[in-house]
Amino acid sequence: MSKLTRIAATVLAAALIAPLAGCGGKKNANDVGYVARDVNTLYDLGKKNLEKGDYEMAGKLFAEVERQHPYSPWARKAQLMSAFSYYISNKYSDAISTAQRYLTIHTGSRDAPYAHYLIGMSYYEQITDVTRDQRTTQQALDAFGELTRRYPTSRYTSDARLKMDLLNDHLAGKEMEIGRYYERSGKWLAANLRFRKVVANYQTTSHTPEALQRLVETYLALGIPAEAYKSAAVLGSNYPGSEWYDRAYKLIQRHASNVQPAAAPAPAPAPAPQVQALPPTQPAPMPPQEPDELAPQPQTQPQG
Predict the structure, then answer these.
(1) pLDDT of residue 71
(2) Considering the domain boundaries, does residue 14 fall inside one?
(3) Which residue has the higher pLDDT, 268 or 43?
(4) Together in a domain, 159 and 124
(5) Which residues have C-beta within 8 Å of that of residue 127, sequence separation ≥ 6?
(6) pLDDT digits (tens, 9 = 90+) for 51-96
(7) How many angstroms separate the CA atoms of 99 and 83, rounded?
(8) Are residues 107 and 227 part of one domain?
């Protein structure tokens, strides 16, 4: 290699390294650089940041307790506090992954029910209205279901069951939204299948009366009056005073005299109710705390 070539190569290498060094020097304000600190100091810093409202930083500091002192008795509690801090700062993915890691390591812990509950709440807080994809709704339902199955007497189970009822109602609402769309488009069979799914899988939700009434509509449109009458009968037996039964009854009366109901014009779909969002909820509480939490003693074994 000639001298000129070596000089050019050196200059080029320096030009490439300089911007990389500049990028490496930029740090996020919430980054926690590795500084070796004792467990008391780290835990206390995490708690202080939590109290002053810097939740994301608190989550990172609590995570540092686990990273720097993985065998400390307080690493387990710090991991749960980290998950809670991420949850309260709306960092739901971080909250879920931290709580899931906690459950993997500490399956039989006294606070395992809380970790399951926090996972469910982290999904629950991300749920959108029924016009959007409901994958997160199902994930929340699965998380709360896991809690109620594993820990039926936990202090968090009653709220989990309440939220499961709300989530099932929300999923039923999604099926109704799709069914109404198909019905408006004249796709009677596709609509009918959605309404049947609501009646079969979400029969205890608030959407069942409407689903039964729309089954009457779609069965009549498909030319299957016998099934329409059955749906109307179920509706009348279970919801006799509802507006949906009133609509179904009038439809049946109009079609009762038809010799060949299949030739009758399809009934006009009932107007759709207003889209309902999930009701507001209280955020998840802080994890159960140990005595003297602000000054934890590593030599003291926490309960659980």
Answers:
(1) 84
(2) no
(3) 43
(4) yes
(5) 134, 136, 137, 140, 167, 170, 278
(6) 999 999 999 999 998 888 888 888 899 999 999 999 999 999 999 9
(7) 6
(8) no
In the chain, the N- to C-terminal Cα span, in Å, equals 69
Q: Is the same domain home to 55 and 95? A: yes
* pLDDT confidence tier of residue 272, bands split at 50, 70 and 90: low
Two tokens, residue 100: 């899931």
Q: Name residue, tokens 């926490």.
A: 302
Domain CATH code at residue 115: 1.25.40.10
Which of residues 115, 138, 168 is at a domain's end?
Answer: 168
Neighbours of 223 (CB within 10 A): 15
* Cβ-proximal residues to 289 (8 Å cutoff; 6+ apart), any chain: none
Question: Which structure tokens are listed for 152?
Answer: 């039926």
- Please report where in the chains the tokens 């709360």 appear, as a residue: 144
Mean pLDDT of 139-154: 97
pLDDT of residue 14: 44
- Domain that includes residue 252, residue range: 186-263
Site of tokens 């993997």: 104
User: Which of 231, 208, 198, 219 lies closest to 269, judged by CA?
Assistant: 219
Q: Specify whether 44 is located in the same domain as 160.
A: yes
